[in-house]
Amino acid sequence: MIKSELILKIAEQNPHLYHRDVERIIDTIFDEIVGSLASGNRVELRGFGAFSVKKRDARQGRNPRTGQIVDVAEKRVPFFKTGKELHVRLNSPAS
Amino acid sequence: MSDKTLTRADLSEAVQRSVGLSRTESAELVETTLDLISDALVAGENVKLSSFGTFMVRQKNGRMGRNPKTGQEVPIAPRRVLVFRPSQLMKARVNGDAES
Question: Which of A59, A78, B1, B95 could crosslink B86 through cysteines, CB 3.0-4.6 Å?
Answer without folding.
Answer: A78
